[in-house]
Amino acid sequence: xxxxxxxxxxxxxxxxxxxxxxxxxxxxxxxxxxxxxxxxxxxxxxxxxxxxxxxxxxxxxxxxxxxxxxxxxxxxxxxxxxxxxxxxxxxxxxxxxxxxxxxxxxxxxxxxxxxxxxxxxxxxxxxxxxxxxxxxxxxxxxxxxxxxxxxxxxxxxxxxxxxxxxxxxxxxxxxxxxxxxxxxxxxxxxxxxxxxxxxxxxxxxxxxxxxxxxxxxxxxxxxxxxxxxxxxxxxxxxxxxxxxxxxxxxxxxxxxxxxxxxxxxxxxxxxxxxxxxxxxxxxxxxxxxxxxxxxxxxxxxxxxxxxxxxxxxxxxxxxxxxxxxxxxxxxxxxxxxxxxxxxxxxxxxxxx
Length: 352
What we know:
Elements: E1 5-7, H1 22-32, E2 39-42, H2 54-67, E3 73-77, H3 83-96, E4 100-104, H4 115-128, E5 133-137, H5 139-142, H6 148-154, E6 160-165, H7 170-179, E7 185-190, H8 198-208, E8 213-216, E9 227-231, E10 234-241, E11 244-247, H9 253-258, E12 263-265, H10 273-284, H11 288-320, H12 337-346
Parallel strand pairs: 1-12, 2-3, 3-4, 4-5, 5-6, 6-11, 11-12
Antiparallel strand pairs: 7-10, 8-9, 9-10
Helix pairs in contact: 1-2, 2-3, 3-4, 6-7, 10-11, 11-12
């Protein structure tokens, strides 16, 4: 599965009384679907997933799935402290039609999270998961920085397709990329090299009623990377991808792309998806000067709002930029009036 591009890890909207505001969730997802993002992540750290009940998590996954555009990759945050609970939510996400599972590192019993524990956890999840697995290392929240050596070892598992690396350590990203170069896989993509998932193919097939046919471009009889598979009018081909490294810190997006990352899951993209995408697009087109310019325009805002003010800051930036952010859930607290004004000033040049 191709995971190149920008993915916002969407927030969970709440009413003032703390209940999940599903209509606003769906409205946000529908609006994100009209932007050039590659896909959507539900129940990430920015989604306050750790504050949701099991039933709320399932309902958030369902609402997101129903509101998202068919051509966006859907990633479900299913990580929990145990492999058993992780697999339960992953199974449910698969039933809904999600394309991949984002599984954060267990962290509560930190002293016991030694290499054998982490390896056993991810291998068990990957062995039994009906969805491809993305490792999620987020030391700012968990206090556990997954060693690059463990990630590189897990990269050989056929159902572990990548990592969201949120340490903001570009050198670690470089080590992950270099250490996993030996992993060679192929992904189904469109003729224009956008992602195609089994869910998308199934939807196209059921909507047309055809099984599709294989057409080889450039002559020959054997399918190859140049072959186009036509399924219900959706033309696809194969693209070679390796172990895919995505980053989780907006301030390191451009330098991380330069050392081999293929995209990012960025909280800052919740409020400014297009601004984040423009960095990726400029890099993709080989215009490094423009990519760096676009990067410099979001650096201060992304660091202060996401890392400094946290989810409350991110939600107010969303409100300021036309999305619904709304309140956070206790024990998180809303911003003061002064901090709201600071967020608005930081976001003044990053309007949608």
